[in-house]
Design brief:
This protein has about 100 residues and is mostly beta strands. The protein has strands at about 1-5, 5-10, 20, 25-30, 35-40, 45-50, 55-65, 70-85, 85-90, 95. The chain has one domain. The strands form two sheets. Strands 1, 2, 3, 4, 5, 6, 7 and 8 form an eight-stranded antiparallel beta sheet that branches. A two-stranded antiparallel ribbon has the order 9-10. The chain is globular.
Length: about 100
């Protein structure tokens, strides 16, 4: 497992067959700062959306995930699921804002 700020990435077996490929290299958009967690080189991996769940398939030897406020992380070739961390407050369960 990898954590990149408010983003959690874990290895999975495969992208579900009903997944739709995304055309953007952005995993998660920053809500306060405008900074995004994204693929440094979009040619190293594919992003897939399956009913609101994000998957990353690294097609090169490795892919780097970057964000201006965090150190880059390197994912080896493989398939991963991506979660954006959520937090609880008495008023609502909401996404953690990075």
């Amino acid at each position: 497992m990898w954590r990149h700020g408010d983003v959690l990435i874990a290895t999975v077996v495969a992208v579900p067959e009903e997944g739709k490929r995304r055309s953007t290299p952005v995993l998660v958009h920053g809500e306060l700062t405008g900074h995004s967690h994204r693929l440094e080189d979009p040619h190293t991996a594919e992003l897939w959306d399956c009913g609101g769940v994000l998957f990353v398939r690294v097609t090169a030897e490795a892919a780097r995930i970057v964000h201006p406020e965090h150190l880059p992380i390197t994912l080896p070739r493989g398939t991963y699921r991506v979660w954006q961390q959520r937090e609880y407050s008495p008023k609502a369960i909401r996404r953690v804002v990075d």
